[in-house]
Amino acid sequence: MTRFALFRLPILALGAAFLLSACDASIDDTTTDLTEAEANEAATIVAEALAEDSGGLFASTDDLTASLETDSMTGGPLSVGGHRDGRGSHLRCRNGDYVLTYDEVTGTHIVTYRCGLATTTMQRSYNARLTYQYRDAEGGFVARPVEEWDAVDSVAFGGTRSGSVQFTRGDFVGESMFEQEGRWTLSNLADDATPAILSGSQQRDGMRARSGPGGSGTRTFSISLSGEDIQLREGSDGLGTTAVGTLSYSLDMEIERNGQVVTRTVEGTIELEDSDRALLRIIGIRGLYRVSLGDGETSYES
Fold this sequence. Notes:
This protein is mostly beta strands. It has one domain. The protein is built from 3 helices and 16 strands. The strands form 3 sheets. The protein has a 12-stranded antiparallel β-sheet with strand order 4-5-6-7-8-9-10-11-12-13-15-16. Strands 1-14 form a two-stranded antiparallel ribbon. It has a two-stranded antiparallel ribbon with strand order 2-3. The radius of gyration is 19 Å and the shape is globular.
């Protein structure tokens, strides 16, 4: 996959200041030199890499757990998206120019689609290519997973996405252009007595531009997510399956300091709760950010 390179992408615009919505993040200068605004921006980039609406991880989990019909993708027995209340629009988004093929030799189902959808606050446009290998408990391929779902014990999933997401949040407007690749395995499906297990990683690279009352600016970024033994289980809210566990992340992003553009590395963890939100922690910052897995909204909590 062609990657956005932090040191090769041109800077489209550098404003006098890159102001973000205010949060009272408390910075521990002994472990990080991120400013409050930079920490907020880092949290937003991580949130977009997670959120269903921005084509992040929870768009991938929604695709991974879908039923692959001949002419469309529908909700599967373990559907896991970012919106827990049924408001998610990814189901409608993912069926543009939908094509499903199957390679009997490798046991690989291949799905391509174009996502193009606009709401009052967000417009997304990206292309996706997804691969699935369904296997039974003996390791054999399951060629008809919809009809033979009870025989499926594991799914090896790969997904690439490239495109853009435009957004409006309060007085700020912006756009993220990204390329994303993920490799995930869903296992333990044949055992009804224990949760299914999700493990794997995702890489998302791109550029994010934003403008508002205080000015405008752009940042290039590269973020990796990984997780092991994430449990997919029935949610306590009664709204279907949810993901519970911990992800780790590493984010490289450009920041402007004293007229110079430098790259900073931000690392931390993401705790997936039994809900449609996650708790995002940045190493070196007291407190945490609460992230919506649906639309990617963030809020700081001390």
